[in-house]
Each structure stands twice: as structure tokens, then as C-alpha cells.
Amino acid sequence: MERQLNNPEKGFRVAVVGAGIVGLLCAIGLTRAPNGAKMKVEVFEAAAEFGEIGAGIGLGPNAIQALKAIGVLDALLEKVPLQPSAFKFRELSGSGDVIYEIPARDNDYVARLYRPVYLDALVPMLDPACVHFRKRCLQVTVSTTGCHVIHFADGTSHETDLVIGADGIRSVCRDFVTNGENRLAFSGRYAYRGLIPVEALKQHKLTVNFDQPNIWLGRNEHVIAYTIKDGELLNFVPVRKESATTSPVDGPWVRPVSTEEILDKFSSSGEDISTMIKLMENPVEWALHMVHPSLHTFSREKTVLVGDAAHAMLPHMGAGAGQGIEDAVFLSLLLTHPATDLANIDVVLEVYNKYRVPRANGAAARSARTGEVYGSYSGNPRSLDYVRDELRDFVWHHDLNKDLDEAFAVLGEMRNL
Fold first, then answer.
1. Are strands 131-132 and 39-44 parallel, antiparallel or unpaired?
2. Which fold is adopted by the domain 185-289?
3. ∠133-137-142 over CA atoms, to 5°?
4. Beta bridge pairs of residue 256
């Protein structure tokens, strides 16, 4: 039976395109909020079921704060514990000596989790009746009545009042927002992603332990590793900048790769890194792309972008997922505010852009700069102060609640007009 709006006078229809980490959170925020009854929410996912690409995901204090604001943090903490935020930098070559540390600070906690765990915690919060699988979005258009129409690969379409594009880095919804202008760029870097069973590591005499994340630095290459899934798996990601930067944006970005090929590319690495590369299970090579130039707005008419669709960034600060979570929380709380209705959605999206565009684009710029710091490391540990300061001060300790209070004040004034 089709679900009806509880408040048709002020209600509106919302379509979330994409049911990954960010789209799922958007839908939960919209449907669980006290004022969520004024909208009808539908979620459209290209895949046949819920699932996430990749393995590990890191959530900093900013993402933890956002998840708490929307009321889903406790469910996640039942699946994964918070951990201190410390990590170490090491030399990539030789013995892998520690060259720099970012110590944990009081009340600085992070969550490092296996992506399926995130889904296991959040999927039960969403009414399955509102989720439609095997719905790959091909295009967003505007009808003669002003409604937005989502066209799917199976030949069907869906009309809605508001489109939330959570369809990832290759976003079709972004094409609508940019009026067809391509905003994807290849970074010149490749990441080699794989998981390593921690039990397998214990059979080798490594000089490093994994009580906290480790990052190894070398010229134009670095490696990051941290444990996930209650310490059962090591998320292991070597990254290398290549001299040739001709990866086609429209071509395949991911391919299976052998450990022998990775060993050849990281031949100057120390023994620990070589051992871990040999233990990688089913490694793949990812060509790292980003949204560039950055968008000056995340919306056009009544289509709005969140997460990688809006600001896909390089992974060097581990900030992308957290920014997407901030987007989802901020947008869902604005849309479920008592003052929001179909007549003023344009104003609500202006408020969203005012806060989220500089915030997310700022994180993307700092992530790109961090990659340059890593790749140009030449033995001066003080060069890593930039990473420590920007990670702590800009990425982790931004006051999302302050942004929300200011945004709510604007909506409150609008309500009183």
C-alpha cells in the first residue's frame, strides 16, 4: 500500500538517490525526526541490496558529534567501540622508524569500523518499504509542473518535489546541479586496497604493532594501516603518485591487481611493508579521483547534493565520510524543521549551502594538501605539523551544533514572517 503524507497542506515528497553511508543516513534522519511525517521519503539504490564499496572507514570526533545530533550514535556504538585518536608516522624505507606522533587528547575519540558494520547498525532504522533497489539513475529533469523527475535505467521514472543526490563520486544528480559540466578530475594517485587477517600477521616478526593507526611516508608514496572488525582485520592501503596522469575519468577506476605488482611498485619499502603486501587478500587498484574544481553550490532548483556527489575528496585525511555524514545530518535537520515546507525549500537549501559548501570544500582542499605533504616528505618531521593542526582544528573540532543553531535561527525568523 502506498504511504500517504500525514500533512498534505505543508507536506512534500523527497527522493534520495543512493543508499550508501550518506544516503542511508539522510533517509533515516528524514523519516525518524518528529516533523518527518510532513514528507514522503523514497530511497532509490542502483544495487540489488544494501552494500558498501571498500573496507575500512574512519569517523573522527566531528562525525561522532553529527551522529549523536541525529540520534543514531548509540546504535553504532553497540557495534563498534570508540577509540583514542592517536596515530604514528613512520619511514617507509628501512626499518620503519617512528618519525612523528599525533597523541590522543582528552575527549578526542574516533571510530574505525568495517563498512558492513555501519550498515548493520543503521539499516534496521529505516522502513524497508521506502527503499527501492535496482534503480540506477540515468538523468534528472524538470517537468512542466516544476517537479523533478528521476529517470532510471529500467525505463521507469519517479516524480518528486525534492531530489537528494547521494549517488557518489560519479553522481548523475551532480550533472543536473552543474548543468552538465564535468567536475571530476584524476589525482594522479593510485591506492592499493586490501585486507589482512591479523592472525596471519602474528605469524611474522613485524617491528610495528597496531594498537593505533600507522602511516608510512616515502617520496611520492605512503601507506596507511589500521585494524577494523574488533581487531580481526587490518585495513591496509598503499598509495602511490605516478608520473603519468592519463587515467580516463570515464573509464574503469578499479581493477584487481596481484601482490607481486604492488611489491614492484613499492620496492623501496622496508621489510614490514613488503611482508604486509604479500599478505593482502584480493587487492585492488583504485585510481583516485575527486570533484575538481570544487562546486560553488551543492544545489540547483530542487536537487541538492550530499557526500561524494557534492565534494568527493582525496582520502589522505580520512575526512570524506565524516563530511558526508555532516551533510546528511545538517540537511535532514533543516528539512524536518517545523518552519520548512514546500513553499520555502529554496530558502532552506540556501541555508544548507551557506554552511556546508565552505565547510566541505575546505576539508577537501586540506585533504589534497595533506597528500602533497605526505608525498614530498624529505626527513623534516615538522612538515607534519600541518596535518596535525588542520586535522584537529579544522576537520575534527568544527562546531556543527553552532552551525545548526545559527541555521535554525534563520528558519525560525522565516517561520515568524
1. parallel
2. D-Amino Acid Oxidase; Chain A, domain 2 (3.30.9)
3. 125
4. 284
Closest by alpha carbon to 195, among 223, 217, 226, 241? 226
Give the number of residues written for the chain.
417
Q: How far apart are CA 295 and CA 174, in angstroms?
A: 10
Q: Report phi then psi at 73, rounded to 5.
A: -60, -45
Residue 34, C-alpha cell as written in the block: 518528529
Closest of 351, 355, 356 to residue 415, by C-alpha: 351
Provide long-range contacts, Cβ within 8 A and 24+ apart, for 119-125: 119/24, 119/50, 119/51, 119/52, 120/79, 121/72, 121/75, 121/76, 121/78, 121/79, 121/80, 122/24, 122/25, 122/28, 122/72, 122/75, 122/76, 123/24, 123/50, 125/28, 125/32, 125/72, 125/75
∠ CA 79-315-80, nearest 5°, is 10
Same topology, domains 12-83+122-184+292-416 and 185-289? Answer is no
Instruction: Calculate the dihedral angle through the C-alpha atoms of 231, 235, 238, 241, rounding to the nearest 10 degrees.
Output: -140
| Residue 242 in grid coordinates | 605516478
Candidates 3.40.50.1820, 3.50.50.60, 3.30.457.10, 3.20.20.10; CATH matching 12-83+122-184+292-416: 3.50.50.60
CA nearest neighbour of 383 among 223, 241, 238, 217? 217
The neighbouring-strand residues paired with 72 are none
- Grid coordinates in use for 261? 605488482
* Interval 321-361: pLDDT, tens: 999 999 999 999 999 999 999 999 999 999 999 999 999 99
**Omega cis (within 30) before 293:** yes
What does the pLDDT look like over 72-122, one tens digit per residue?
A: 999 999 998 899 999 999 999 988 999 999 999 888 899 988 888 888 999
Reported pTM: 0.94
* Mutual angle of helices 115-122 and 21-32, in 10-degree steps: 20
Residues 6+ away with beta carbon under 8 Å from 339: 411, 412, 414, 415
Integer Cα distance of 275 and 204 in angstroms: 8
Domain ranges for the chain: 12-83+122-184+292-416, 185-289
